Amino acid sequence: MAMADQTNVKLLGMWASPFVRRVQWALSLKGVISYDYVEEDILNKSSLLLELNPVHQKVPVLIHDGKVICESLVILEYMDETWKGIPLLPHDPHGRAMARFWARFSDEKLEPNAWTAMCSEGEEKEGALKRAIEAASKIEEQLIKGRRFFGGDDIGYLDVAMGWVACWLPVWEEVGAMSIVDPARHPRITSWAGDFLSHPLIRTNLPPKDEMVDYFHGKRKRIMAH
Amino acid sequence: MAGEGRVTLHGTWASPYSKRVELALKVKGIEYEYVEEDLMNKSSLLLQYNPVHKKIPILVHNGKPIVESMVILEYIEETWSDGPRLLPEDPYERAKIRFWATFLHQQVFEVLVLVLKTDGEAQAKAMEQLHEKLKLLEEGIKGSFPGGSPAVNGENMGLLDIVVCSYFGPYKVHEEVLGLKYLDSEKYPLVTSWVKSLVQYPAVKESTPPHEKSVALVRYFREKALQSPAGVL
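Predict the joint structure of the above. Result:
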């Protein structure tokens, strides 16, 4: 297996961002062990970030040999095409389409609703919570019984894309005093989440839970103060 | 590996999402059956093929459905890998195209729709946002594709051309209904010339509905939206 080309890989990130962490998980899967990591202060964005991602002004931003790539799912595709090691996406076009579909679904239907439910109250919260639970239930229906991961026996693109559900969602549920993924209603997601978090490449690459709870309590407070 | 087997596209004539799949199929020279869906009266087949979103477009290949237009486009590119490319070979060039396609898909269209659905102050605000997006696109294209329009081998439309065309191709229809121009060739020379050259492609001309038909539909959509300020389409 050819050595992953690690020359000049830099990642602009933020420790509590689920989208940044998915890139870090993927880097780990690809065997890119040493890279420059720059922690961004989201409330005080660096001129580098604004220069490299003028359109969204967000992290993650991956810089590889001077090439700048933004948007976490675009970065994952770039990584899969650049570093040949462990494949992230499956080989067959249909499998790839399914993985891409569910990654987008998680980002478009589950994440924004979970976030809104955490940072709102009353009717707005109820509506967002309902939509988040519906989204989780659709994901539950799609998970295949008897397969540990979305990627099969080992983790892949969709596990990395959905990993925030295992790690961030429980924190948001606590901060928002709510339940979205429920072991009784979503046994497959619950079981997958446990397997994902204990995977050797993942378990050493998780943000500290207590700090996450504090951080998101703070964020929720700031958002709801407006 | 050339894709084999029956291809059916379930779509609607006025949907930009449906349009982009049509364009991709035409660029690739893929033979397909087209099924016009009635979104006010969704067929059981549509619901069966897309239980999650219950939307079009749906591409059915060898009996298996693929949904979400951007996912479908990538599937078409990977399955029919002979013939014209929708994406370049280089991973970085591909990343740039995906980035801009995502930007357009996630941010630009909803603002355009907002402009079409509103009037007065709300519309002025939406128009401002649309101009912001167009400005970002203009500058971004200049930076990302210094050689100009991302048509992959200079002849056929590529993925980003298809996405741009699906949203802005009908600009004349929008401008007629609005009584306003937004594709300003002085402010956005690159984007404007790009769109204008895209609508000249035979595949685009072939699949563009008659102007008056589109104007009537967009006008109807706008009027309905203006009548119900709270619960909009």
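The beta strands of chain A are 9-13, 36-39, 61-64, 67-70.
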